[in-house]
Amino acid sequence: MKTFFLTGILLMGILGPASALEALPGSLTFEKPIVKRAKLPIGSTVTHEFHYRGQRIKELYVVRPDHSLKLTWRSASSSR
């Protein structure tokens, strides 16, 4: 049973999330999916905040080895 559970965790880590986050209007990668940040170290994170449809959006990006950004996390809250 432990082996089955550990295999499942390993596969989830290898395959990644079931659904990737889509860029919203206002996201750093919206309409330009390859945004390069040449001066940032690989693996570093970039945060971005903006408003979308009355909500305050916070996003977290990770710098890939080719210096492009990968959207990894998003949070939405009321902008009041």
Plain-language structure description:
This protein is α+β, with helices and mostly antiparallel strands and 80 residues long. It has one domain. 18% of the residues lie in helices and 34% in strands. It contains one helix and three strands; from the N terminus they run αβββ. The protein has one helix at residues 2-15; strands at residues 45-52, 55-63, 69-78. The termini are far apart.
SSE blueprint and pairings:
Blueprint: H1 2-15, E1 45-52, E2 55-63, E3 69-78
Antiparallel strand pairs: 1-2, 2-3
Low-confidence stretches: 1-15
The fraction of residues assigned to DSSP E strands is 25-35%
**What's the tally of helices?**
1
Global geometry: elongated
- Spatial arrangement of strands, main beta sheet: 1-2-3
Share of helix, binned: 10-25%
N-to-C SSE series?
HEEE
Q: Write down the overall mean pLDDT.
A: 80
Distance between the termini: 48 Å
Largest sheet: 3 strands, antiparallel
By helix and strand content, what is the structural category? alpha+beta
User: Taking Cα atoms only, what radius of gyration do you get, to the nearest Å?
Assistant: 16 Å
Number of strands: 3
